[in-house]
Amino acid sequence: MRRRSLGARLRDIREKAGVTADEAAMALDVHSSTIYRIERGKVGIKPRDVKTLLNRYGIDDEEQLGELEGLAREGRQRGWWAKYSDTISPPYATYIGLESEANYLYIYDAIIINGLLQTREYAESSFKFAPAGDPKQIGTRIQLRMDRQERLRLLKEGAELRDQSDDEPTGQSRPLQLWAVIDEAALRRMIGGKEVMEQQLSHLIEIAQYDGVTLQVLPFDGGAYPGMLGTFTILRFAGADPDVVYIEGKTGDVYEETEEQVRPYWQIFDSLRAAALSPVDTLERLRQRLRDVKDGVSDV
Question: For the structural domain made of 80-295, what CATH number should be given?
């Protein structure tokens, strides 16, 4: 995320200075493609190269230079998820980095409950549907899923979600607001059996009452909805960093980053949450579903 923020700012400075990517590349003695990769946050940049670029762009503001050099140093640091790098794909690692830095997450799930909201038992059961793999790697990926939930656990503990020092909160201590719309199908799909679903539904009921969390169920009885066949997450960040849409697919992860690409997802999400049950009615629907599971009531 730091790379992405730094890259966007360097691109903005370059364009305002009227310097082409080829001219910037000459200053660093690299190919122009490297400049584009830096500006898209795909690769890091050394602090001294940041200074070189700013000199080329005619910027001599020491405060601005210090800030951008700081972002460059932070962008070269390994995130908390780096220990899982041998079990996850680079695109998914990128998502975890974005998720860790986001201040707001807007999630829609149509098939199963989102990983951020899963119990360990539900997560373990969901992996049984995945192609056969190394049990150790699967166990590691489940632990990664649990680690991603740290910011929700802070909400549970009633933490203020900010460092007690003067430093800016980062990573797992960064404030989080979560708005999740879950299709009722995900609640009725019996993943892991009766006991697992009882635990999962109880977990959702608890999370739905956290400060900073809005949970809504999209009911069966409302019919069809725009975007109901897809699953996506909108990530929103503090400051001027643009929103990102993440779509996890069987053939690879997709990121939408431009305003034109992101806008339709906001329109879909607004339609979904308008059609979904209110948070209060969602709690009652979850409690009713939990009672049905405990009583063995059929969904048919």
Answer: 3.30.870
And the tokens for 6?
A: 């730094």
Nearest to 216 by CA among 274, 292, 263, 150: 274
d(CA 181, CA 197): 18
Q: pTM of whole model > 0.85?
A: no
Domains 2-75 and 80-295 share a fold: no
Are the C-beta atoms of residues 216 and 276 closer than 8 Å to each other? yes
Between the CA atoms of 274, 277, 282 and 287, what dihedral angle is there, to the nearest 10 degrees?
Answer: -160
CATH code reported for the domain at 2-75: 1.10.260.40
The span from the CA of 253 to the CA of 246, in Å, is 7
Helices (H), ranges, the chain: 2-17, 21-28, 32-39, 47-56, 62-75, 90-101, 120-126, 135-147, 150-156, 184-188, 194-207, 259-275, 279-295
**Cβ within 8 Å of residue 48, ≥6 positions away:** none
All structural domains of the chain with their residue ranges = 2-75, 80-295
Are 236 and 229 spatial neighbours (Cβ–Cβ below 8 Å)? no
Q: Pick from 194, 172, 219: which is nearest to 122 by CA?
A: 194
Q: Write out the chain's pLDDT in tens, 300 residues.
A: 677 778 888 988 999 999 999 999 999 999 999 998 888 877 888 999 999 999 999 988 888 889 888 888 877 667 777 788 777 887 788 888 888 888 999 999 988 999 999 999 999 998 886 665 677 778 888 999 999 998 888 877 664 444 444 444 445 555 689 999 999 999 999 999 999 999 999 999 999 999 899 999 999 887 777 766 678 999 998 877 789 999 977 666 788 888 899 999 999 999 999 999 999 999 999 999 999 999 987 664
Cα(first)–Cα(last) distance of the chain, in Å?
Answer: 46
What's the token pair of residue 121?
């038992």
